[in-house]
Amino acid sequence: MYKVLVTRRIPGPWLDLLKRETEVDIWEGRDPPPRSWILSRVKDKDGLLVTLTERVDREVIDAGVNLKVISTYSVGFDHIDVKYALSKGIRVTNTPDVLTDATADLIFGLLLAVARRIVEGDRLIRDGKWNLPWYPEFMLGKEVSHSTLGILGMGRIGRAVLRRAKGFDMNVIYYSRKPHDVDAKFVDLDTLLTESDFLVVTVDLNQETYHMLDYSKLMKMKRTAFLVNASRGPVVKEEDLVRVLSEGRIAGAALDVFEREPISPDNPLVKFPNVVLTPHLGSATRETREKMAEIAVKNLLNCLKGESPLYEVKL
Ligand code: GLV
Ligand code: GLV
């Protein structure tokens, strides 16, 4: 029987299937397993099922001398040294598609929340500070309908954001490595930055996108514009974002991802009323997380059997 290392419990019945077909060694905690646990346990394993909090670098890959497959329970694979794994004949698989709609829904939720000051309004009421009846200039936000949405990256999630934006009659522009056959205007990065009312980050994290939005880029945004990021924290240089927010150079931000997660309660971002924060919830629906479990387990089993996985990371 194949031996498999699983670094977290996953929702739904799919671990049971994996346990019937392989010998499973699983970390039962909700916290990430210690690195030493992974390094010692991976030694005799044929397959590895990880989440995005486990760094699968050369050391882990070298320790897994029998490894045939690394299946990540995520769409992102920036935590895995894919190039090195592939060079050693180890297949790498991920779980795209099934989380696209959930993530695009959250992105829209963030966008609406920050534009219409939903979280701020909720807090105001709970703090007992809603003490005047309706008046015309109370808590005015930015209109979402008919505004210009700039999408950075036009992959699966970018396209799902675009579909939603059509329902809001938004004018959509986008920038990505190459133009796509979509109903939105392809522009260069500068135009995207200078024309967007809402700038939504949907690129994945890699060497080219690391700190892609730094001070000089963020400064090109309109003072009235909002940044929305539910991709990976390090695409935005966080200290530079804090700086432009402090200087009032953009209208606000809505963030689901951060350079270091979890962020600490004294992260400067926490102080801004015009920033909406969620704790990496992009794919966090019951339905999506169960589908991700199905895909991650099937990817793993297929690779162990020498069959094609449902999704494979290729460089
Ligand atoms: C979530 O961030 C994922 O990559 O699936
Ligand atoms: C708002 O509640 C309105 O009636 O305009």
UniProtKB/TrEMBL annotation:
<dbReference type="Pfam" id="PF02826">
    <property type="entry name" value="2-Hacid_dh_C"/>
</dbReference>
<dbReference type="InterPro" id="IPR029752">
    <property type="entry name" value="D-isomer_DH_CS1"/>
</dbReference>
<dbReference type="Pfam" id="PF00389">
    <property type="entry name" value="2-Hacid_dh"/>
</dbReference>
<dbReference type="InterPro" id="IPR036291">
    <property type="entry name" value="NAD(P)-bd_dom_sf"/>
</dbReference>
<dbReference type="GO" id="GO:0047964">
    <property type="term" value="F:glyoxylate reductase (NADH) activity"/>
</dbReference>
<feature type="domain" description="D-isomer specific 2-hydroxyacid dehydrogenase NAD-binding">
    <location>
        <begin position="108"/>
        <end position="282"/>
    </location>
</feature>
<comment type="similarity">
    <text>Belongs to the D-isomer specific 2-hydroxyacid dehydrogenase family.</text>
</comment>
<dbReference type="InterPro" id="IPR050223">
    <property type="entry name" value="D-isomer_2-hydroxyacid_DH"/>
</dbReference>
<dbReference type="GO" id="GO:0005829">
    <property type="term" value="C:cytosol"/>
</dbReference>
<dbReference type="GO" id="GO:0051287">
    <property type="term" value="F:NAD binding"/>
</dbReference>
<dbReference type="InterPro" id="IPR006140">
    <property type="entry name" value="D-isomer_DH_NAD-bd"/>
</dbReference>
<keyword id="KW-0560">Oxidoreductase</keyword>
<dbReference type="InterPro" id="IPR006139">
    <property type="entry name" value="D-isomer_2_OHA_DH_cat_dom"/>
</dbReference>
<feature type="domain" description="D-isomer specific 2-hydroxyacid dehydrogenase catalytic">
    <location>
        <begin position="4"/>
        <end position="313"/>
    </location>
</feature>
<dbReference type="GO" id="GO:0030267">
    <property type="term" value="F:glyoxylate reductase (NADPH) activity"/>
</dbReference>
<protein>
    <submittedName>
        <fullName>Glyoxylate reductase</fullName>
        <ecNumber>1.1.1.26</ecNumber>
    </submittedName>
</protein>
<keyword id="KW-0520">NAD</keyword>
<dbReference type="GO" id="GO:0016618">
    <property type="term" value="F:hydroxypyruvate reductase [NAD(P)H] activity"/>
</dbReference>
